[in-house]
Design goal:
six-stranded mixed beta sheet, alpha/beta, 24% strand, 29% helix, homodimer, eight-stranded mixed beta sheet
């Protein structure tokens, strides 16, 4: 027996239609690389997306074809998303910070037909065009080409219809080993994920929200914000430039209430605040994801009266896995307890499920202590990578995230490490992330990386690599003294080395594989001694 | 081409599973008719629902079977919802305030197999049991039977699985003409509707919310709150008694932040506040629906610092059609402008669409002036009534609501009347609702009803029936003077009659059909004069 309600495919064009019809006048502001500001609104985005869909159709784009972008955050990039999806295609956002070899692999593997790009990336195009085998059309976003393409259409276009299980977006993971892998989002998964993000315990979006997403549009679907924002009538402020001064100015001029980005962008903002005394006056929710936020960052934002939403997820999870939000007893907690809670990675919204399993595959209790590999499943979690031969999730849908975590009794998840970064000392696990976070809390330490290196007795012991803050002369002894207050004694690094800089991935994460390679033959001071 | 994300049926038992796993300790408090208070939590509701599903299976309940309730708001009623749905059945909430003839028709039409009921409704059972032809099992919620049934099960039960398009709930509309009609909600429509309700612009639910729904569980699925609350980790406070003193006490003792109900319940609350000086201290969102909230009620609640969400919907729309929420420019509006906006019925969330058509079927502009029949479509809107032979919606999904409305340029919808209640005077429409709302704003007027009665020249003219407040001697002249400031001169009623009481439907709405019948031969004073 079937129910009596209406058929309704959960398709992404319905989101932009809703934004156009119900929130058409809500603005989309862009600060461009040349310092100019342009303004459009959701009605304008929808209108231009229809025109772009027409243009793509004329270029010969067929249902399911991939349309790539190499672009920063701006309104034309947003038009490209909805236009490519609207014509029945798949928007494929490429991270321009990847190495050439990866850029070539990804565009060819995706069989991209069209590439939209910012002119700042023209050198990449010039360099790699001969190696890109499937791209027939190149359109620059900001040299007039894109605007001409739009202007040549009449906009009389009806969005492509079809099944909600069809794909709408492709994002590759920038893994540190092997070839990048593509995650193929569906209309359905994207709509359900966006409905989830609007909720108060996730991004808390409404027509009163003004969001400046610092997270780039080429990172994990910009954390889904272009979809959730349209759905909720959020005003967007985009900046093609990630500079503390510009961001702070935009936040105040446009009365930005919501922002989202990786921890490093907040460090840049803090530097600007310290240097000038300026601060964002209207912010009320800052979402931090991508990697763990240091406690000092969480504290500083909270003391500004801002809710800090510590999020965890990955490209394979659309990306929201968990998000921190005040629990029922929030007002009864001390400030320190509140910070403790916010420093963890939050809880799952309805839809996704988490579990932690040990090396034998046994499910661990939610006791806040039993750590293991974090697994996730749900409607916006990957089943199979693009063009892969086998599923990425097991038969029950569990996808192994590669993270090591504990789950607290209240359901709050806490990442303790990446499974491949865990330091295995005498059969016990030392969290490299906790060591690093403790180290950056020490005055004078700008950045730190902990890796396991060979030890004849313990198998592995921690080596800590530290970048000093400019002008600091912090010593090994001072750092060790600081660490003693924050980690177990047997976790203390056997050696601390000071370096000028640390290697990072294209998404700004520490490149531990490179460090492990570099120090694989390093003889620890404790062993040498 | 299909996408790469996981299969996931949007089934209601996933909601209670989520509540159990992630918000298990959030309380469900019940104030019973005998004045006692019991406490359970989402884990307890889930545990008991599994046991109830086992019990229902043993009773012979099969997939798709209807399981009825005649009950007020309490935790066992909530268990019955999730238990009946969990076994693969359809929960059918019956409004105990209906007439016997309707109660007989509904249960037989639904072919209910089991009936759970409050002992206060035992007389209904005793009276109608001989006429109910399909009910095999009667279980009283509050005489020990229900608890015994639960206690006899071990709870080792896995929720029935199946398609998300299967039905999960049946609610009959208590129309004022013809036989009641059943609306058969689906798992999918219910889950999508609940995800929508959690959003900030609808019910704004999170683990910090404490909701006391005054709307009964037998009214339009309790406005979906039992599902949205479980999804979001909301604490519920139920009262089987709707008394201003009890409600106010519960709201303060349990720190209730959210409440929802028809306008009359707030009138009762105001009377208690005026008599005692007490007020609900923690309320921050009051949702008013079912019929239009008078301006004075909106103002009073807003002056208490409470957000008033004026909602519109019907059983056929699950029920959320529109909900009022602050727009982007809220802070720039004067208090009067804010009240104006809140007095309208709000905007659609993502998913549903509205339009207004005139008598010729032409779509009217969103100009805030062009009124016509309100139509709606979307994933949680009815396609076909239960066991009907034809669709209730047209080929494009548009369902005619029977309401008359305008849509403002910002998308805000404003109900002006029920289409059958509109007074047609000389080819123009007079809104009976606006006349009534203006009249109750006059000091001394407790309630008012406007109906059209025959007029030889104008076809129809308004007759206003007024119930005076206790002790008031307000006159026809005083009311007319008041009305002159609020409605067009040609809208002024031709006659005002004072009556002791007005007839209401089982859901508390004015029974205009009875009034029209009673006054169909009334000769207006203006005609007689």
């Amino acid at each position: 027996m079937l129910g009596g309600m209406q058929d309704f495919e959960l398709r992404v064009p319905r989101i932009i239609e809703h934004a156009e019809r119900e929130h058409g006048q809500r603005e989309i502001v862009t600060y461009w690389a040349d310092g100019t500001i342009t303004r459009t609104n959701w009605a304008g985005i929808a209108r231009d997306a229809r025109k772009l869909a027409q243009a793509l159709e004329k270029m010969g784009v067929k249902r399911g074809d991939r349309i790539a972008t190499l672009g920063m955050n701006h309104s034309r990039h947003l038009v490209a998303w909805y236009g490519a999806i609207g014509v029945g295609g798949v928007i494929h956002t490429i991270n321009p910070r990847l190495f050439d070899e990866q850029l070539v692999y990804i565009a060819n593997h995706a069989e991209d037909k069209v590439l939209f790009y910012d002119k700042v990336f023209q050198p990449i195009i010039d360099r790699l065009r001969p190696q890109w085998t499937s791209i027939d059309h190149y359109v620059c976003f900001d040299n007039g080409e894109f605007e001409q393409l739009i202007a040549a259409q009449d906009g009389d276009y009806a969005w492509a219809e079809g099944s909600e299980r069809e794909p709408c977006m492709l994002c590759y993971t920038s893994g540190t080993t092997g070839n990048p892998k593509g995650v193929l989002y569906e209309h359905r998964s994207t709509v359900i994920h966006a409905m989830t993000e609007v909720q108060p315990s996730v991004f808390d979006l409404s027509p009163r929200a003004v969001a400046l997403p610092i997270v780039p549009m080429f990172h994990a679907a910009a954390w889904g914000l272009p979809f959730a924002g349209a759905m909720s009538g959020t005003k967007f402020v985009y900046s093609a430039v990630n500079d503390g001064k510009v961001l702070c100015r935009l936040m105040n001029e446009e009365k930005v209430t919501h922002s989202a980005g990786v921890p490093t962008v907040w460090l840049a903002m803090f530097q600007h605040m310290d240097a000038t005394g300026e601060k964002p006056e209207h912010l009320r929710l800052v979402t931090i994801g991508g990697s763990a936020a240091p406690r000092a960052m969480v504290e500083r934002l909270m003391k500004m009266g801002i809710r800090v939403g510590h999020a965890w997820g990955m490209t394979e999870t659309s990306p929201i896995g968990t998000m921190g939000a005040p629990p029922g007893n929030w007002d009864e907690l001390s400030f320190e307890e509140q910070v403790d809670l916010v420093c963890r990675q939050g809880r799952v919204p309805f839809g996704v499920e988490l579990r932690v399993v040990n090396d034998e595959g046994a499910i661990q209790p939610r006791d806040g202590e039993s750590s293991g590999r974090l697994q996730i499943r749900g409607p916006w979690v990957i089943k199979r990578y693009f063009q892969a031969d086998a599923d990425a999730a097991d038969a029950d849908g569990w996808f192994d995230t590669g993270d090591v975590a504990v789950i607290h009794p209240c359901g709050t998840m806490q990442i303790t490490d990446r499974s491949k970064d865990v330091i295995k000392s005498g059969g016990e696990w030392i969290s490299s992330v906790e060591l690093e976070n403790a180290a950056v809390g020490c005055p004078g330490v700008a950045e730190a990386a902990a890796i396991g290196v060979y030890h004849p007795r313990w198998d592995e012991r921690p080596l800590l690599l530290v970048v000093r803050k400019p002008g600091s002369d912090v010593t090994e002894g001072q750092i060790l003294d600081h660490l003693k207050n924050h980690v177990a004694k047997w976790w203390l690094p056997d050696e601390i080395l000071f370096v000028d800089e640390l290697p990072h991935t294209a998404t700004g994460k520490l490149l531990k594989t490179a460090l492990r390679e570099q120090y694989k033959d390093h003889q620890l001071a404790t062993v040498a001694a």
